[in-house]
Each structure stands twice: as structure tokens, then as C-alpha cells.
Amino acid sequence: MIRVELVKLLRSRRTWVTIALIDALPVLVAILLAVTGVGPRPGSGPAFLSAVLTDGTLYPLAALAMVVPLFLPVAVAVTAGEAVAGEGQAGTLRYVLIRPVGRTRLLVAKLVAVIVFALLAVVVVAVTAYVVGVTLLGQQDVTTGTATFSGTSLTTPELVARTLMSLGYAMLCMLGVAAIALFCSTLVDTPLAAALGAIAVLIASTLLLTLDAASALHPWLITRYWLAFTDLFRDPIFWRDILRGVGLQLLYVAVFLGAAWANFTTKDVTR
Amino acid sequence: MSGATGAGRRWLVLAVGLALFVAAVVAVRSWPAADSDVDAVALAERVQASTDEPWSGYAVSRGSLALPDADRFSSVGDLLGEETRLRAWWRGPDVWRVDELRTAGEVGLRHEGVRTTEWSYETGIAEGTAERSRDPDVRLPRTVDLLPPELARHVMAGVRDDEVSRIGARRVAGRDALGLRVTPSLEQATVRHVDVWADAETAVPLAVEVYGDGDDPVLSTAFAEFDDATPAASTVAFDPPDGVVVEDEEVLDIVDAVSRYAEVAPPGRLAGLPRTADSSGAVGIYGRGVTRMMALPLDDRGAGPLREQLALTPGASVTPERTVVALGPLGVLLTDDGSGGGWLVTGPVTTDTLERAGRALTPTWAFMTTALEAS
User: Is A271 contained in some domain?
Assistant: First the structure.
């Protein structure tokens, strides 16, 4: 079942067009930085962006900081929103369910496919960003290493390990969005409505995070810890928000995948 | 029918699971703290003696004072008006490290002996420098002052026995913290009280809340993580990354500069408050504990932009002799000596106190008022 979903995902032209669109922003920013040589003022702009002019190997992280707040979750919401509602709209859902597999397994397979989509998007963004980073932007001598936020030197293996952990964390952060969109996808009949439902949750979360009056809710908002991967570049690594971010995503998956399961496994499918 | 029952059962499983999770979170958060029968004076002494205790932790401070954004004082507005996330390692008063965490980097202070090195990630990478300075006798507040133990140390300096009382216990950073309320008795004070929550085991302050007139603190700082083990020397020391040079700075900030170079002597007593031993050069510090006032002479370059910003602050009162504004419990007064310069007098004191101080520091005050009335 999972294999079927993955093959469908990888063969879909829309998957690769979406990833290319996500990838376009960091590439455009890299070109603009390289042409103008003007980075954001220190303390402003996305994480790592002011440092990439001197060290292009950090550009995958800057690219991640650009796409994680909006582009990547919107793409994940659209892909996950398509999962059940898309099959229903196309009239293929009842045929899918005729196969001898449980609806729970179908939901899990859909979620795995969405996560693989997020992983693909993150990897493509990172690899492209690394290439444009070292070719267009500053290239730090690999023997001198890169500095952490705390002003300690990172060796190349350490930099690679922490970058890979950042990519894994960014991918994990998309779990919650995927679960919400999947739940919405079991509720409504059109993929657009399902995606918009998940995006509405993201926008509400982002808005509430700026509101001091909502501070009691902040630790539970889905976007609260999304940029915590930057804490991997402190020395010692600051695990607090990273661990909370992972826990929160797992909680969202448990609740919304559970809700999707409760709703979908007994849903009356007519198309 | 069976489908509907099945759906109901599944939703019930989900609801019960969620309810159990919420119950567990509420139970952990409302876990009662173990109090102690130690009296207020004894606890105050323990807190004051805890400055040598080693610790490390993560603290968050929140200030609600909307200070004017005036050039050389802007860092104070950030500290007292925003949320600041701090990670710190404290081997003792002479060796410590404090990092202000920012989304896109951090600004760290590393202290050893009489020198403090400031490392700012983005600026440091771009310019290849870190700044080291000798610890001045007087300076503007820095991030280190927002750590609960340091803020408590300032608040409790010179506190009297009749100004402290016990206020129970609470859990802070997963530890039992004993409450101590400091209620300033000086008539000049605008701070109603300061609540200090000290670790039951080490007496290191884990949280501090400063209250003005309102029910909510105007400034609060608390550890979210705390460890009483001695942090490693290698964690605290600053070993600059390759390509970064540590530059020695002559002057730390405007208060340091004025104290060393301004040729003015602050009076021994101001608005009924005696000058303290913390005063240095031209900068006078008056009062005790949380009721402290600073008098700082400024030339026209320092006073001009600040005066303009103060005048724009809601509630500001402007006369030819002075501009004065109360920002919550914090009062700020800037006199005008007629040539653009003047005395900056500020602290958590009443505006009457500031006015008295301004008059005492400005010999031309009476003349200017008379001239204005005559015109």
C-alpha cells in the first residue's frame, strides 16, 4: 500500500513542479545576494542569511529558514489535502477502498507519502542551496571551519552532521501540517478545501505567536518550534526547543491522525 | 448502525487519550512546592550569600517598559521592554558566560577576572571581531543583569530587615523555590514590591518579579532550566573561532565614558538620597536596593537626541528647564542647561524626587523659570 502511494507520488509531475517552485525562492535569493553583494543587516532577515556572504556552506540552512515558515508547509498541506479528498473528487476512492486493505493502512500510507514528499523537498532545497551557496556566495576555507552562533569553531564533519540534523528536524516539523491536512481531507469533498483548512490553522498559529495575550497557548501552537533547528548551531547545542518541537509534532500527529482515523474508517464513501 | 457505533467508539478513544494527556500536563504543572519554615531575614541573608554558588541554566526575562529609542541608550529599552532569552553558565562572580539567544544568532558575554568579551554572531562573522573591555565602575544595564541571581543581587543590596517578608513557595524550573517579598520603605520609591523566589537548596534566586502600580510585574525574569552543578571551564571560556580577532575597547558605553571623562562632580546627596560607593567619576548613584537613582551629566550631543525622544514619549512633560516622563515605575528626567546639555536623572523613583534632583543639579533652573514667566 505504501509502495503504491510512493510510486504515485514520484510519478506525479505535480510533485516535481511543486518542489521546483519551492526551490526557486532560495535560488533567486542566492543570485540576488551574489549579484548585489548586499546581505541583510546583522540581526535582521532569516537565520544565517547575513553569514552566507562570507560562508556559502551555510546556505542550505539559510534556504531552510526561508522555506520552512511558509512555502514548505503550504506545499505539504496541498499534497496531504489531496490524499483522500482528491481520490473522492476524482471518483477513485471507492475503487481504492475495494482493495483488500484497511482504511487505517490507507491513511498511514497517505501520511508516509506526504512525509516522503516533505523529505524530497527538503533534500532538493538543501542540495541546490549548497551548490549555489559554494559557487555563487562566500566560500570559507574548509580547513578553518565554520563558527557556531556561540563563537566556537565547527569542523566540516560537525557542520555536515548538524546540517543533516537540521534537515531531519525541518522534515519532522511538517508531520503536524500533514496530519491536519489529512484530517481535513477526510472531512471535506474537495482537496482545495482540505488544504485551505490546514493553511488556516498555520496562519492562525503564526498570528497567535505574535500576540502576547496568547502567550499561554504559544507552547502548543504548531509553528512555535519550527525554526528551532537553528539551536543546533549553538555551543553547547540547545536541545530544549528542539525536543519540544519534536514532541509537539508527534502530539499533533497523534491527535489529527487519530481524528482522521476516527472519521475516515467509518465514513460513507459513495464515489 | 454498527458503523455509527464504531465511529463513536473511535472518537471516544481519541477524546480519552487527549484528556489523559491534558490531565498529566496539568498535574505536572500544578505539583505543589515544598515550603520551609525559614524566616524572611534568614532567607534574605542566605540569598545575599549565594552569589558565589555555581550554576547553569536557561532563563527568560520579560519587561513591559516602553523606553524611548534613543541612540546610545537603545540597548536599555530592549532589555526592559522586550522578552529576552538567556543561557548562562556561572562558575562564580569572576568567571561566567551569558548568551542572549536570538533566532538568527546570539550575543554572548564572557567574563573572566576584570574583563568581559562580547561576541555577537552575525556582526562577528561579518567583521571578524569580538570586543573585549575592562569592567567599568558604572555602566548601562547588560543582559547579565537580567539573570534572576543578578537582578536579585541589585534589588537586595542594602535591604533592611523590616523590608522583607515571606510569601510561601512555588515550583520554578522544576525545583522548590522559597518566596521572599522586598517592599521598599523609602518615600522616593515607585516600585511597590519585588518578589524573589530562591532555590530551597542553594538559595540562588530562580525568579524575580518587579511590581509597579499594576497587578502584573513590569519586569520579571525566571529560570526555565536550572542546574546547580559547576559548569566546565571550557564552556565558559572564549576561544575565538578562526579568523576572528578580539579587539580591546577603551570605553564600554556612554555611562562609562561620562564617568571617566566628564569634568563634573555629582553632589553627595540628591533629593534626600545619599550617594553610594557605586558612584564613579562624574556619575552619581543614589539610594539603595531597588530604589536607586543615577545622575549623569551629558553634553549636547548626548542629551539632544535623548531629549527629542523623551519629548515624543506619551505622558512627557516639557518645560524649558527639563523634560520628564514616568514609564511605569521608572522615572526619567533630563535637564537643559541652556546650551543643549544637561543632567540625566533616572531610576525607579517618583517624579517629585526627579524634579528635586533636577533643581539641585541645575543652578540656572530658577532663573529660566523666572525668565519664562516674565516673557
Answer: no
Give this prediction's pTM. Answer: 0.89
Please, which residues have CB within 8 angstroms of residue A209's CB and are 6 or more apart in sequence?
A218, A221, A223, A224
Considering the domain boundaries, does residue A270 fall inside one?
A: no
- Chain A residues inside the 8 Å CB shell of B87: 234, 238
Among B residues 85-104, those touching chain A with beta carbons less than 8 Å apart: 87, 99, 101-104
Q: What is the pLDDT of residues B259-304, one digit of tens each?
A: 998 888 899 999 999 999 988 889 999 999 999 999 999 988 889 9
- A8 lies in which domain range? 2-264
- Tell me, yes or no, whether A269 lies in a domain: no
- The Cα–Cα gap between A118 and A75 comes to 8
Distance of CA B316 to the CA centre of its chain: 23
Rounded to the nearest angstrom, the minimum Cα separation between A262 and chain B is 5
Q: What is the pLDDT of residue B2?
A: 53
What single-letter amino acid sits at B210? Answer: V
Among A45, A147, A262, whose Cβ lies nearest the Cβ of B11? A262
Check CB contact under 8 Å for A234 and B106.
yes
Q: Does A259 touch chain B (CB under 8 A)?
A: yes
pLDDT in tens, B312-326: 999 999 998 899 999
Q: Which of residues 36-65 of B touch A (CB under 8 A)?
A: 58
Looking at the 3D structure of chain A, how many domains does it have? Answer: 1
Q: Which of A43, A53, A152 sits opposite B104 (nearest CB)?
A: A43
Nearest CA in chain B to A38: B126
pLDDT of residue A266: 67
CA-only gyration radius of chain A, Å: 20
- Please, what is the end-to-end C-alpha distance for chain A in angstroms? 20
Res. B373: pLDDT tops 60: no
